[in-house]
Amino acid sequence: QLQLVESGGGLVQPGGSLRLSCAVSGFTLDYYAIGWFRQAPGKEREGVSCISRSGMSTTYADSVKGRFIISRDNAKNTVYLQMNSLKPDDTAVYYCAADRICVLYMDYWGKGTLVTVSS
């Protein structure tokens, strides 16, 4: 059974850092692009970042460029999102998702992890 499980969320002060992990099981990570998305209270879900199957191509939303870094370790079946210089506007539930390519509506989704940026 194909599963994605996010972890690493929590409460952090503005300017702080967190690293989210997306652990996948039930499929070979090598064959899938992985995206990170987020949904803040009262807002629509938005794409944050995506990494291609090979890891050679990455994309970022303008709002996180220069602050977030996506990476993957296929041997560990895990994709990471390093989030630095966090702002209160980054507060949201963060989801990882899988598909053959990076698209807005991906096929497989995790249940999310909450990130709260507050002093």
Main sheet makeup: 7 strands, mixed
Overall outline: globular
Give the overall average pLDDT: 96
What radius of gyration results from the CA coordinates?
13 Å
Task: Report how far the terminal alpha carbons are from each other.
Answer: 40 Å
Strand content: over 45%
Percent in helix: under 10%
- H/I helix tally: 0
Structural classification: mainly beta
Order of helix and strand elements from N to C terminus: EEEEEEEEEEE
Tell me how many strands there are. Answer: 11
Low-confidence stretches: none
Tell me what you see in this structure.
This protein is an all-beta fold. Helix content is 0%, strand content 50%. The strands form 2 sheets. Strands 2, 4, 5, 6, 9, 10 and 11 form a 7-stranded mixed β-sheet that branches. A 4-stranded antiparallel β-sheet has the order 1-3-8-7, with no helix packed on it. The mean pLDDT is 96.
List keywords for this structure.
single chain, 119 residues, mainly beta, 50% strand
Summary, kept brief:
The chain is 0% helix and 50% strand. With 119 residues, it is mainly β.
Fold topology:
Elements: E1 3-7, E2 10-12, E3 18-25, E4 33-39, E5 46-51, E6 58-60, E7 68-73, E8 78-83, E9 92-99, E10 108-109, E11 113-117
Parallel strand pairs: 2-11
Antiparallel strand pairs: 1-3, 3-8, 4-5, 4-9, 5-6, 7-8, 9-10, 9-11
